[in-house]
Amino acid sequence: MLQIEHLYLFLVLLPIVAFLYASVGHGGASGYLALMALFSFAPETMKPTALLLNLFVASISFYYYYREGHFNKKLFLSFAITSMPFAFLGGIIEVDASLYKKILAVLLVFAILKMLNVFGTKSTSVKKVKLWQGLTLGAIIGFFSGLIGIGGGIILTPIILLLHWGNMKEAAAVSALFIFVNSAAGLVGQLSTGVSIESSSFLLVAIAIIGAILGSYYGSKKINNKHLKHMLALVLVIACIKLVFT
């Protein structure tokens, strides 16, 4: 998967990315994809690997946020009902490698803005999401999640905060489970087309889990990771530039 001289650096960065994303209720697929782009992974390897990592990291993140009482079931269902089938649909579609990189670069911008807290940390007043809004957004986010190989949390969380549908902790808990179900649906879609998961990917999962447990614990306990998030944002910026110009 990687040349030996790059392997150790990748394995050091992977749990750091998992830690940072799990701390804000995300699975980290955008971060994993950014890392894999920086280390020149093949697009056909990136999608299933990122989705597999998402399954484990997002589930751990959800557990910690749920335990702290931040999960809003109704808010989750309003998006998830349509996101899962559309994530499966996106997962079975093969995207041209060049187009894939451009779409991924655009979506990574959401992750950068989120990490820099451009969307704020919490809403002052919580509003109820309308059914048609949740179903429509769920379908759109789900489709692109499966298409690109992400869980959709980097898009859903900013939307929840911008439209005041929940506070930061609620958005994190909802996004964590949203990411899990979309990643599962997208991965099933990938596997149904004959794509296989490399055995080395499970080693990456084991390493990412370490960062996920620590990140979820500290994130759910309101530990400030501001400076580390800024470092991750820099990595994503570099990855975006690489994706656009290579």
Could you characterize what this model shows?
- By secondary structure, the protein is an all-alpha fold.
- The chain is built from ten helices and no strands.
- The mean pLDDT is 84.
Descriptive tags:
single chain, 246 residues, mainly alpha, 0% strand
Nutshell version of this structure?
It is built from 10 helices and no strands. With 246 residues, it is mainly alpha-helical.
Q: What value does the average pLDDT take?
A: 84
- Ranges with pLDDT <50 over ≥5 residues? none
Reading the helices and strands in chain order gives HHHHHHHHHH
Distance between the termini: 19 Å
- Global structural class: mainly alpha
Largest sheet, strands/sense/barrel: none
Give me the count of strands.
Answer: 0
State Rg. Answer: 16 Å
Query: Please, how many domains?
Result: 1
Oligomer: single chain
- What count of helical segments does DSSP give? 10
Shape: globular
Strand content: under 5%
| Fraction of helical residues | over 70%
Question: What is the element layout, followed by pairings?
Answer:
Elements: H1 4-23, H2 29-38, H3 43-67, H4 73-91, H5 97-115, H6 131-148, H7 153-162, H8 168-192, H9 200-220, H10 226-245
Helix pairs in contact: 1-2, 1-9, 2-3, 2-5, 2-10, 3-8, 3-9, 4-6, 4-8, 5-7, 5-10, 6-8, 7-8
